Amino acid sequence: MAKIIDGKLISKQIKDELKAEVAKLKEEGREICLAVIQVGNDPASSVYVGNKKKACEYIGIKSLAYELPEETTEKELLDIIDKLNNDNTVHGILVQLPVPEHINEEKIINAISPAKDVDGFHPASVGALSIGQKGFVSCTPAGVIQLLKRSDIDITGKDCVVIGRSNIVGKPMGMLLLRENGTVTICHSKTKNLKEICKRADILVAAIGKPKMIDAEYVKEGATVIDVGIHRMENGKLCGDVDFDSVEPVAGAITPVPGGVGPMTIAMLMNNCVEAGRNQN
C-alpha cells in the first residue's frame, strides 16, 4: 500500500506559516496586496479566481479583483497592468489564463513586472530559474517540490522522470528537480519507449494531460508518483493523468486527485505573494 501524500494538509501547513508571517508584517505596518485580473467569465477560471481570493482572505493578504468583460481590448488590459506595475501598494499581479483569443497571451505575460510576477511565467523569472538565480517559480512545480520535501522524500541522486514539457509545468519541474540534485529525464508525446523510461524512475511526475494514462506498467515498485493532471470524467468525478487504482498498490507514495497537487498550487502562489511583499518592502 502506497503512502498517500496529502496535498490539502501540506498546503494548510504552508498557508498557516504564511498567515503568521503576514500578521507579523501587518504589525510592522506592511500590508501585502495581490491584484487578480480576469477577462471574460470562463467557468473554470472563475473557480480558480474564487479559490485565490479565499486563500488571500485566510492568510490576511489584501486582494484586488479586476473582473473585466470578454470584449476588453488588449490595450485596456495592458493599461491596467501598467498602472498596477507602478502602484507601490500592489506587490503581486496575476492575470488569469487563458485570456480571450483577441488578446496576445505572451504580450500580457511579458508586460507584468518581474518583481510582481507571482505566477512565475515572465521570461525573466524562467531565465533566473534556468541559471540558478533567485526569482519567482511557477506555482505548480514549486508545490510539487514542497510535497516531496515535506513528505521526507529525498530528491538527491534520485532518477526523476517528468512526463510533459509545457512551459508552466514540465520544463520548470525538470529544472527544479535538477536544482534539488535529482537526475532528470523529461518525456513528451514524441518520446520512444516511454514505459521503459518511466519504469526507471524513483520519482515520476505525470503532467501529460491525458486522463488515467499512467497505469502500473509505467511504475517501478516503490516509486513516488506525483499526479499533476486533473480531468472531469463523464460521471462527474475528478481524475488525474495517473490511474490511481492501478498504480497505488505498486507505488511507495502517491498523490491523489483531487487533494494532491491542486491545493499546493494556490499555497505556492500565496508564498510568492508574501515573498514579493518582502522583496519590495
What is shown here, in short?
By secondary structure, the chain is α/β, with parallel strands linked by helices. It has helices spanning 7-27, 43-59, 74-85, 105-111, 123-130, 139-150, 170-179, 194-198, 244-247, 261-280, and strands at residues 3-4, 33-39, 62-68, 92-95, 159-163, 183-187, 203-206, 224-227, 231-232, 238-239, 253-254.
Number of helices: 10
Number of domains: 2
Question: Low-confidence stretches at least 5 residues in length (pLDDT < 50)?
Answer: none
How would you sum up the global shape? globular
Assigned CATH architecture of the largest domain = 3-Layer(aba) Sandwich
Major sheet: size, sense and barrel closure?
A: 6 strands, parallel
Class by SSE composition: alpha/beta
Which percent range fits the helix content? 40-55%
Distance between the termini: 47 Å
Give the class-level CATH name of the largest domain.
Alpha Beta
Largest sheet: spatial strand order: 1-11-8-7-5-6
Instruction: Report Rg.
Output: 19 Å
What is the CATH superfamily label of the largest domain? NAD(P)-binding Rossmann-like Domain
CATH topology of the largest domain: Rossmann fold
What order do the helices and strands follow?
Answer: EHEHEHEHHHEHEHEEEEHEH
Query: How large a portion of the residues is in β-strands, by DSSP E?
Result: 15-25%
Care to describe what's here?
With 281 residues, the chain is an alpha/beta fold. The protein has 2 domains: 29-115, Leucine Dehydrogenase, chain A, domain 1 (Rossmann fold, 3-Layer(aba) Sandwich); 139-262, NAD(P)-binding Rossmann-like Domain (Rossmann fold, 3-Layer(aba) Sandwich). Helices cover 41% and strands 16% of the residues. The chain is built from 10 helices and 11 strands. It has helices spanning 7-27, 43-59, 74-85, 105-111, 123-130, 139-150, 170-179, 194-198, 244-247, 261-280; strands at 3-4, 33-39, 62-68, 92-95, 159-163, 183-187, 203-206, 224-227, 231-232, 238-239, 253-254. The strands form 3 sheets. A 6-stranded parallel beta sheet has the order 1-11-8-7-5-6. A 3-stranded parallel beta sheet has the order 3-2-4, sandwiched between helices. A two-stranded antiparallel ribbon has the order 9-10. Helix 1 runs parallel beside helix 10, helix 2 (43-59) crosses helix 10 and helix 6 (139-150) crosses helix 7 (170-179). It is globular, with a radius of gyration of 19 Å. The N and C termini lie far apart (47 Å). 43% of the residues are buried. The mean pLDDT is 96.
